[in-house]
Amino acid sequence: MQPRTSVAGLGPALLATLRRDLTVALRRRGDLVNPPAFFALVITLFPLGISPVPEQLAAIAPGLLWVAALLATQLSLDALFRSDHEDGSLEQLLLAPQPLAALVLAKVAVHWLLTGLPLALMAPLLGLLLSLPSGSYGVLAASLALGSATLGLIGAIGAALTVGLARGSVLLSLLVLPLTIPVLIFGSGAVQAAAMGGDVAPALAMLGAQLALALMLAPWAIAGALRISIHG
Amino acid sequence: MTFRLEARGLACERDDRWLFRDLDLGVGPGDVVRIEGPNGSGKTSLLKLLAGQLPLQAGELHWNGVSLRRARPAFLANLLYLGHAPGIKPALNALENLAWYQALHGESGSHRARLAALEVLGLAGFEEVPAAQLSAGQQRRIALARLTLSPRLLWILDEPFTAIDRQGVAALEDALWNHAAAGGAVLLTTHHELHARGALTRVDLSKAGD
Amino acid sequence: MWDVVHRLGSPRTFYTIAGRWQPWLWALAALLLGTGSVWALLFAPADYQQGDSFRILYVHVPAAILAQSCFVLMAVAGAIFLVWRIKLADMVATVIAPFGAAMTGVALFSGSVWGVPTWGTWWVWDARLTSMLIQLFLYLGVIALRGAFASRDGGARAASLLTLVGVINIPIIKYSVDWWNTLHQPATFTLTQRPAMPAEMWLPLAVMVLGFYAYFVALTLTRTRSEILRREGRKRWVLELGS
């Protein structure tokens, strides 16, 4: 047996991780329904709690939709690394001779595909319930698609930091929610601008810039956080 | 070409107490090293330190003479570490689990090789059953299949005999010694009495602290 | 250079040196805060618009400045701890966190009290106050995360990393809150932004800011020394101190 001096194949490793996470998630389909169901439920609560008057709802719809979507993504984050940690495969992921930042990026990508994207796609439907002005539906979906990717990246840092803790989920919200405020501001700002017939480009551009920054920095932070917290 | 993992002056502190310190250890071809000590003496911590999973609190680690900090990718490429948890995803079947591990290490591996490895461990007929429906011992056997499937020079095994029946224990013991005889190295903790078939190095942690 | 860093990084050296500086710093803090308070309360002229209520500024602004610098310092200490594993850096970060949170609280409270005469209400979603509130949550998160870990080292490293993530985010949060604020309340009157402050007004402010800093340094030295004793209580040099 000879010592191996180099490891080939980050590509196959990434692909395999994407496929594995997708397969696992699709086999536990029940969990996939939770974030969209939560999103829809929270939106249903607002007319009941505030008022069913369309004008009133329309005025606050962009913010409500964004806050509810943000909380729905938050809800699913706790599970991002937890089951992998419990069965020991997270430890093995950290021992793979591959850049960990790239591997966790693959995991976050699957998470976005299965929670962020569905939320973005169903948001226009819920916008309808809140009498969101026509013309802002596309922006709503686009801003959520962009923003939820950033939310997933930021949230994954918190999920990684709390993965070794028994009751990490409440703490996770405390850690992550303050960091998501810029995404919320520009996300709902874009929808508001669209609803009032204003220029949506600046807010969407800011969401894009945040995503770019998160893509550059968050994977390293997630990887570092996992190395720290996996051993409590 | 040979290999060597060299540890000098390792220490592990937990809550102001030294579990062990000034620990020197070298592992090379043919070595079987057993870490011994009562519960809580830092056996698992030592294995994790040696596998580069925990930050060093003191001392240094070298892989082939190069600090592990810099040689990390080369080191990990030659390491197979099995921890307390077997690392088997319950929602996936044995073949899928093994295929992911192979891909993670940059190998494509063949379906036939995976079937053969599972058969050796007595898992024939369970290849496509979701691991959630398998017993703890069977799950651990899937993890052990990685030993034959992905040949690695250095095995670090934390309690590998847990949950395994008597035949499995004998087979695993054979595998350990054969690995050493073939020029590999094994570092392990176990409460099981190993039948020494070669040079067995013992590292006792019970008196290594304060 | 490295020798100096590592020697200063030794808790024992720090304990001795900090012990020597400590009384002077406390005296300096008392002097500055005393002078500053008397000057600010009795001699500085009243504001032509806000009258005497503007004097809250002499507490609000130093507290807000300190709250921000504490977070940055905490991040610097965290980075030093993560990279060089100098335990003293983590002890300092541990000590700064609650102080920074308290200063954020003081800034929020004084801002809110100030809001009553200025805006006629206890709370306005003013850009500065909103950022402060978010920063308070960041502090609480760091403190909570540190406490949640069973092992001190794990908690220390996790808190350090979170602080670094936070410090990168603070400017982004500030920027986005400012953007949000101008979007919703164009050209409102903010508490501390005024065209030009005469020297009789800002000189006492400068003294107060320096006083707050002196107080912060003195308190940090004192508290870090007790943190050292708490953590190193079993080491021989500490035991010899008591004998």
UniProtKB/TrEMBL annotation, chain A:
The chain crosses the membrane at residues 32-50, 56-81, 134-163, 170-191, 203-226. It is found in: Cell inner membrane. It comes from the Bacteria. Its main location: membrane. It is a multi-pass membrane protein. It holds the Pfam family CcmB. Belongs to the CcmB/CycW/HelB family. NCBIfam families: ccmB. Required for the export of heme to the periplasm for the biogenesis of c-type cytochromes. This is Heme exporter protein B. The gene is ccmB.
Automatic annotation (TrEMBL), chain B:
Keywords: ATP-binding, Cytochrome c-type biogenesis, Membrane, Nucleotide-binding, Translocase, Transport. NCBIfam families: ccmA, PRK13538.1. Transmembrane segments: none annotated. It comes from Modicisalibacter tunisiensis. This is Cytochrome c biogenesis heme-transporting ATPase CcmA. It comes from the Bacteria. The gene is ccmA. Gene3D superfamilies: P-loop containing nucleotide triphosphate hydrolases (3.40.50.300). Pfam families: ABC_tran. InterPro entries: AAA+_ATPase, ABC_transporter-like_ATP-bd, ABC_transporter-like_CS, ABC_transptr_haem_export_CcmA, P-loop_NTPase. Residues 5-210 form the ABC transporter domain.
Automatic annotation (TrEMBL), chain C:
Residues 28-184 form the Cytochrome c assembly protein domain. The chain crosses the membrane at residues 24-44, 56-84, 91-109, 129-149, 161-181, 201-221. The gene is ccmC. Required for the export of heme to the periplasm for the biogenesis of c-type cytochromes. Keywords: Cell inner membrane, Cell membrane, Cytochrome c-type biogenesis, Membrane, Transmembrane, Transmembrane helix, Transport. Pfam families: Cytochrom_C_asm. This is Heme exporter protein C. Belongs to the CcmC/CycZ/HelC family.
